[in-house]
Design a protein that fits this description.
Layout: H1 2-10, H2 20-48, H3 54-83
Helix pairs in contact: 2-3
Length: 86
């Protein structure tokens, strides 16, 4: 960890501590997206139980993976915006 900090310092990257408000906002975003991901997973399991067709199952699984990636990307983007808002 110290080596990474030294490397960042050499490159001119300054570590900025988060404020309590930023920490709370990040925690709220994580909580919201954790709930959304859980909802997507429940919907995925429900959809998987409705059919036995392999093609339909593959399509449902692809949609689930796409939704998870989208939500994870949105969450990470929002958190990064908060971290860089200093």
């Amino acid at each position: 960890m110290e080596r990474l900090r030294k490397k960042d310092a050499e490159q001119g990257i300054v570590e900025k501590p988060l404020t309590d408000a930023q920490k709370a906002e990040i925690a709220e975003i994580r909580q919201v997206y954790e709930a959304r991901l859980a909802q997507v997973e429940v919907m995925h399991r429900s959809a998987m139980n409705t059919t036995l067709d392999p093609e339909a199952l593959a399509t449902i699984d692809q949609e689930y993976q796409r939704d998870r990636e989208r939500l994870t990307s949105e969450r990470d983007s929002k958190i990064e915006k908060i971290r860089n808002a200093i």
